[in-house]
Automatic annotation (TrEMBL):
Residues 18-220 form the Luciferase-like domain. SUPFAM superfamilies: Bacterial luciferase-like. The lineage of its organism: Bacteria, Bacillati, Actinomycetota, Actinomycetes, Micromonosporales. The keyword Flavoprotein applies. GO terms for molecular function: alkanesulfonate monooxygenase activity. GO terms for biological process: alkanesulfonate catabolic process. Keywords: Flavoprotein, FMN, Monooxygenase, Oxidoreductase. This is Probable F420-dependent oxidoreductase, Rv2161c family.
Length: 276
């Protein structure tokens, strides 16, 4: 098992390229950026994390701008989306952005994707929350067609286009790993249908059972990564025992004086795990 970090790349915190460079220098395997195009001021949908939504959710840079800066600042670090809200994005444009970052980075992109939690945010992008899961699946499948075919077409319930040309193609073949976020009951089916791996948030009660279920049903290799793992060697040990291949912690957004202590705490937990 290796280790990474997640970060909301806000305009008032450590810049995307700078945090990527520092994370790479300290020997971590990967860096994931969160995505929200905006946060509706009505705040109708409750945030799953508590009563008060942190400011960083509405202050992030554009995901692919941040990923490009991270790619240019590093040479070995895996960079990725943790996660990209594809139900709020045009699939042809997003396929182009994913392929461009993967090509520019030399094949270092992990494409984490999710359906999101904020219903007003979805609606502002023209997405009906009631059909978002079907929309999500079609957009992933359509992007895979664009990445892997010289002349791509797609016809579905929500996504329709006749023959198109789109380059560059991703450096990774057949495409950057599509890591399906989420931890609901139906997520295993989504991973099996069109994912290259599973990318859930940390849950300490049933990690091993869920991973075992996915492995038992899969007819191909699937990556298992975990986000929001606490900086605790016991949590890391649970991940390793369950077969998680990469565990990542969320770092706070802000200046380096805020980020560094949290990163050091994560590194201490890793050290305690591997030193046993």
């Amino acid at each position: 098992m290796d280790f990474g970090v997640g970060y909301f790349p806000t305009h008032d915190g450590v810049r995307p390229g700078e945090i990527a460079r520092r994370v790479e220098e300290r020997g971590h395997a990967a860096l994931y950026f969160a995505e929200h195009t905006h946060i509706p001021a009505s705040r109708e949908t409750p945030w799953p994390g508590g009563d008060v939504l942190p400011q960083k959710y509405s202050h992030t840079y554009d995901l692919f701008v941040a990923l490009t800066a991270a790619a240019e600042a590093t040479s070995r670090l895996r960079i990725g989306a943790g996660v990209c809200l594809v139900i709020e994005r045009d699939p042809i444009t997003t396929a182009k952005e994913v392929a461009s970052v993967d090509h520019l980075s030399g094949g270092r992109l992990d494409f984490g994707v999710g359906i999101g939690w904020n219903r007003e945010e979805m609606r502002n992008h023209g997405t009906d929350p009631r059909t978002r899961v079907r929309l999500f699946g079609e957009r992933i499948k359509a992007m895979k067609e664009i990445w892997t075919r010289e002349e791509a077409s797609f016809h579905g319930e929500f996504v329709n286009f006749d023959r198109i040309w789109s380059w560059p193609k991703p450096a990774q073949k057949p495409n950057p790993p599509v890591l399906i976020g989420g931890g609901g009951e139906s997520v295993v089916d989504r991973v099996l249908e069109y994912g290259d791996g599973w990318f859930p948030q940390w849950r300490d009660d049933n990690i091993a059972a869920r991973v075992a279920e996915l492995r038992a049903k899969a007819d191909r290799y699937l990556q298992i990564q975990m986000l929001s793992v606490p900086p605790d060697p016991k949590a890391l040990e649970k991940c390793a025992e369950a077969g998680v291949e990469r565990a990542s912690v969320w770092l706070p957004s802000g200046p380096w004086s805020v980020v560094e202590p949290a990163l050091e705490k994560w590194e201490k937990a890793i050290g305690e795990l591997v030193g046993r």
